[in-house]
Design brief:
Strand order of the largest sheet: 2-5-6-7-9-10
Largest sheet: 6 strands, antiparallel
Helix content: 55-70%
Strand content: 15-25%
Number of helices: 15
Number of domains: 3
Number of strands: 10
């Protein structure tokens, strides 16, 4: 631009004129080139499109993209799979085995008594067709067995021989072939009547993990409430910082206008140069305040972005503009109702009560383990035998059942470990109960403080609004006095600073009041209901 305001005769080279160039045409080309460069620079340095987001838009994005919530959801999913895995204790199992045994044992005579020898081959097949545990503690087993044995039994035989009238004896092992097969199938059950009757280790794990699944659900809800509350309060701070930038801009405009007016008065001798310096100082201070306010706004935008995206790089260049403005809706507070909500809906106290419930399950198991083992059992099956497998199976089909019933009792002479484990967990139970009581006290104290703070901040809003209105009227009156010569620029500057402070205090009071309402909802556990955010786990 400085080139265009320079005198053409002194700036334009003489040799170009001599060459027959038209000055006007050349300047027209320069103007066109400057316009083109300005357009390119404007497109290059143009700020990113502003993204306008309401509070509910931010909450929706946070529920979808917030990394902390994604981590908490994975913890809940892990609890679901853990509980599902516990039911594997009731999965029946099947096992099949087969083996071949070969045995050789020579016949001998010990103490004059012949001991026959054996050479045998055994083929054994066995199967646990069903083996497992039921949810009420009954153990069951269905098994079968096939055994096929073939071989020779060596029997010592004395052989007499005569040679020349002399009789001699000789013992020889004579093989006697044999073959037999056996088959059986048997079902058995064992039912505990005392220890492991109402609860056992499998049921203990399942009940505790059901409890932990509920605990994880409430923990997820707690994290959602916490994130939304922090986001809501950050959103109110964003509105405050944006409004504060507007206030600082107005203050700078007013200060610069006063500088311009004072400069004109100094030029005509109606004002001392010192008053101009005071106005310029105030303008410089206002500009510094504006720079600081814009930086605070940028920082607060970054905070909002950290809540609503997991890909900060993509959203970082995009400015965020909040939708709406800060208001001060009047609230009617009921301490008793707030206490009732906090003591039933606050996730922390529900989790503390679930901890008590979980420990109660452990105590039931510990107490059950102090009882003796008294089990009732029964078996029923079929047996068969024959020379070969088919004969054994055919014989088993001839309805030759076998059965048995009985009971067993087992009681250690001392139960040192179970007794002390029960006492330990009983002592810990008392601590969990006290934790619940402590949460009840803390919740009531927090809500009491929140209500008092919210009431005070609401009154602050009214007082700050009145102070801002008075400051506006005071500045207007002082400016009129200055125009009539009854005031000084320094006094006007003071009134301007007072108005800027009053405006900032008013929007700060509005932000604080809304944040206090948000904090009260969090301590009541009603954040999701107040903001109409649905919560459901699948």
């Amino acid at each position: 631009m400085s080139l265009l305001t320079t005198d053409k005769r002194s700036w334009f080279p003489a040799w170009l004129i001599g060459a027959g160039f038209s000055v006007n045409r050349f300047f027209g080309a320069c103007l066109a080139l400057a316009a083109l460069c300005s357009s390119v620079l404007a497109q290059t340095n143009a700020p990113a499109d502003v993204r306008r987001l309401s509070l509910h838009d931010c909450i929706e994005l946070a529920l979808k993209n917030n990394l902390d919530l994604q981590i908490d959801r994975s913890s809940y999913t892990a609890a679901v799979f853990t509980l599902a895995a516990d039911y594997g204790a009731y999965d029946p199992t099947i096992s099949i085995s087969g083996e071949h045994d070969h045995t050789v044992q020579g016949a001998t005579v010990i103490g004059g008594f012949p001991i026959p020898g054996v050479k045998s081959d055994n083929d054994i097949f066995s199967a646990n067709i069903l083996n497992g545990l039921t949810p009420w503690g009954t153990k069951y087993n269905v098994q079968s067995r096939l055994n096929d044995q073939t071989g020779d039994s060596f029997v010592p035989v004395t052989v007499l021989t005569t040679n020349g009238g002399i009789v001699t004896s000789k013992t020889e092992n004579v093989p006697v072939p044999f073959q037999n097969s056996a088959a059986s199938v048997k079902a058995s059950i064992t039912q505990p009547l005392l220890q492991n009757f109402w609860i056992d280790s499998a049921r203990l794990t399942i009940r505790q993990d059901k409890n932990r699944l509920k605990w994880s659900e409430w923990n997820l809800k707690l994290q959602i409430i916490t994130i939304i509350t922090r986001l809501e309060q950050a959103y109110y701070d964003l509105i405050y910082n944006r409004e504060n930038v507007v206030v600082k801009e107005k203050a700078l405009e007013a200060a610069q206008r006063l500088v311009a007016e004072n400069r004109k008065k100094v030029e005509v001798g109606a004002l001392a140069p010192l008053d101009l310096r005071s106005a310029e100082s105030q303008a410089a201070a206002s500009e510094a305040d504006l720079i600081d306010a814009r930086n605070s706004l940028a920082v607060q935008e970054a905070t909002i972005k950290s809540f609503i995206t997991g890909q900060y790089r993509d959203l970082a260049p995009e400015p965020i503009e909040p939708v709406g403005e800060l208001t001060a809706p009047r609230q009617s507070f009921s301490l008793q109702e707030s206490w009732a909500q906090g003591l039933t809906k606050r996730p922390e106290i529900v989790q503390a009560r679930l901890d008590v419930e979980r420990h109660g399950i452990q105590l039931k198991y510990d107490k059950n383990q102090l009882l003796p083992e008294l089990d009732l059992f029964g078996t029923f099956g079929y047996n068969g035998s024959g020379l070969v497998f088919s004969g054994a199976l055919s014989d088993m089909e001839q309805n030759e059942p076998s059965w048995s019933v009985g009971g067993s009792i087992s009681m250690p002479l001392s139960r040192t470990a179970p007794r002390n484990t029960y006492r330990l967990h009983k002592t810990q139970m008392e601590g969990f109960v006290l934790t619940v009581k402590r949460w009840e006290r803390d919740i009531m104290v927090d809500i009491d403080k929140d209500i008092r703070t919210a009431r005070s901040s609401y009154e602050q809003v009214g007082a700050r609004r009145a102070a801002r209105q008075f400051a506006e009227a005071d500045l207007d009156a002082e400016e009129k006095k200055l125009q009539s010569g009854k005031s000084t620029p320094y006094t006007v500057l003071q009134k301007l600073r007072d108005l800027t402070t009053a405006r900032g205090n008013e929007i700060l009071a509005l932000s604080t009041y809304n944040k206090n309402l948000s904090q009260l909802s969090q301590d009541e556990g009603t954040t999701l209901e107040r903001l109409k955010v649905g919560f459901q786990v699948k």
